[in-house]
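Anyone? Bumping this.
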Amino acid sequence: MASPAAAVPRAARTPTTPQKDDKRKQILKAAVKVFAEKGYHGCRISDVAEEAQVAYGLVYHYYGNKDGLLAAVFDTNWSVFAKAINDVAEQPGLTMFDKLQQIVELGFQAFEMFPLVVKVLVLEFGRNSRLGEALENPAVAGVFASIARIFEQGKKTGELYEGIDPYAISVLFMGMLETAFVSFVLTANSSRSKVQSHITVDNMKATVLSMCQRALLGAVSKKSAAI
Amino acid sequence: MASPAAAVPRAARTPTTPQKDDKRKQILKAAVKVFAEKGYHGCRISDVAEEAQVAYGLVYHYYGNKDGLLAAVFDTNWSVFAKAINDVAEQPGLTMFDKLQQIVELGFQAFEMFPLVVKVLVLEFGRNSRLGEALENPAVAGVFASIARIFEQGKKTGELYEGIDPYAISVLFMGMLETAFVSFVLTANSSRSKVQSHITVDNMKATVLSMCQRALLGAVSKKSAAI
DNA sequence: CTCCGTTGGTTGACATGGAAATCAAACGTG
DNA sequence: CACGTTTGATTTCCATGTCAACCAACGGAG
């Protein structure tokens, strides 16, 4: 418990070896990388084991089977976003637009810091028609609920245009974000690279925010809209 | 050559058997259904053959391999959308919003008429990181180019807000549409059913259009914006 | 007019390869 | 020594893709 770091055999640590001797986490991390690079269906468990520098069987020991591994990858990483988004949604004293802005910021930050994680979440999970059924997954549904609550707030305060459905718009909002990431993820791995002609990440972010501002905001002053 | 239809043995035709003796098309049609129901990776060629009421080997005879089948499904169906969208983009005398509206209409019509086709195109193709690489596919790129051209028109005529990038917004626009379909497709097969709480197809369509109108339109009159 | 060989579409049992999952043994730590 | 961790060769399974035979129409020869 209280053992100092020295308890771990130093000789075993090469610069390329992760410091953690927690192989469970190593596998999870390797899975993200391998799934991102070759796709869930395109990779073998042995690829993950190799990447994690771990025996084949250990993957099964910890995660049961391939689906279990993907599920673990998802749960572990998504829960972070879910919590962050939920926190934003609940935060008092902010307007609808403030919150949306923070969420967009959150998403793009995550994408720049952990592009592989975002790639796996978006590509391997967002569309895998079976396995969790996406929207049926409580963790996913929770995020949608949070977003929807933000738009409902906007509707109450008049910040959201009349005639826009809070639920429908929450789906579209998430879709915009998701597609933005997919467009980068599918064309290059570098987060600063270009899509199509000349779209940069910053450019995309600005456009998303502009959309939110122009598309949604009624003529209500920020003060009265804050909750 | 000039032989009448009577040449075909009538007895072989049962009411449940498709009239076409063109098994090639039968296979394509069956593939759409099977891919939509079980997913590309989740189904076997034998499933397709069975659905098409055709021998296993015939699928290979016509389409070479499983990937070839998916590619054929995509090409066949996507080309229809591609052409329609391109036509809208080129049509003279319409404002940017007119064109966007037509495209939205087009998409929702397609979804209501051929939900399975849309499901396959969106789910199995949109995210399959290998296989055509989506955005790299010329047929897909062509549609994006058409959409981008519409937004560029808007930029020229001032119909599109200043500071919104035509290319970035074209990605987001497509993403909104795609997500709208995905949200229906993942939750139910009936196009009239509800998602989340109470979102209907009509509701979603209205919201998308509203977004376009509010988010994009500058203060330019329609007349001057038409091209 | 009938018969048979040819051709193209069609069949489905089978061989193949490859990946998932198992499991019994080795390890090492307390 | 005992128990949790780790190993990786072995087993199991099954979907893909192959292939040799089948059939139905046609046309030319007898």
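Late reply, but here is one note on the structure posted above: The domain at 77-225 of chain B is CATH 1.10.357.10 (Tetracycline Repressor; domain 2).
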